């Protein structure tokens, strides 16, 4: 089994930055893909960014140029978020996916609030 724990959320002013972490434990060898998602109140969960075990990344259009996703060899991932805007306010979740495409685990989420 895989367990994921997110951290790093908080309150930040527009234009500010936050760095979210997703620490993975358990059967991390089974993780092929890690994704970050977010869910704002009243909206569906949406993909923010993904990174493969080979460190290839792709981003949603609404975060390109502002967010950077990285991972270390232990399977932990880090989402650097710059130039944050109020519309980025959401609960952010990380997700681990296996080689077969099955979802292995979700984290509990971390709240990001962008407000002056």
How would you describe what is shown here?
- This protein is mainly beta and 116 residues long.
- The protein has no helices and 11 strands.
- The strands form 2 sheets. Strands 2, 4, 5, 6, 9, 10 and 11 form a 7-stranded mixed sheet that branches. A 4-stranded antiparallel sheet has the order 1-3-8-7, with no helix packed on it.
- The protein is globular and about 40 Å long.
- The model has no long low-confidence stretch (mean pLDDT 96).
Tell me what portion of residues adopts beta-strand conformation.
over 45%
Main pleated sheet: 7 strands, mixed
Order of helices and strands: EEEEEEEEEEE
Distance between the termini: 40 Å
Q: Structural class, from secondary structure content?
A: mainly beta
Uncertain stretches of 5 or more adjacent residues: none
Number of helices in the DSSP assignment = 0
- What is the 3D shape? globular
Query: Helicity, in percent?
Result: under 10%
Alpha-carbon Rg, integer: 13 Å
Q: What does the average pLDDT come to?
A: 96
Number of DSSP-assigned strands: 11
Summarize the structure.
With 116 residues, this protein is an all-beta fold.
Characteristics of this structure?
mainly beta, 11 strands, single chain, four-stranded antiparallel beta sheet, seven-stranded mixed beta sheet, 116 residues, 0% helix
């Amino acid at each position: 089994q895989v367990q994921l724990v997110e951290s790093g959320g908080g309150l930040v002013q527009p234009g500010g930055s936050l760095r979210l972490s997703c620490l993975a434990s358990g059967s991390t060898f089974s993780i092929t893909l890690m994704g970050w998602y977010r869910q704002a109140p009243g909206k569906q969960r949406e993909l923010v960014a993904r990174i493969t075990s080979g460190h290839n990344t792709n981003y949603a259009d609404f975060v390109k140029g502002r967010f950077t996703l990285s991972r270390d060899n232990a399977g932990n991932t880090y989402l650097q978020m710059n130039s944050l805007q109020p519309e980025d306010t959401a609960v952010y979740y990380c997700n681990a996916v296996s080689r077969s495409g099955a979802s292995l685990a979700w984290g509990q989420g971390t709240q990001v609030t962008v407000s002056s």
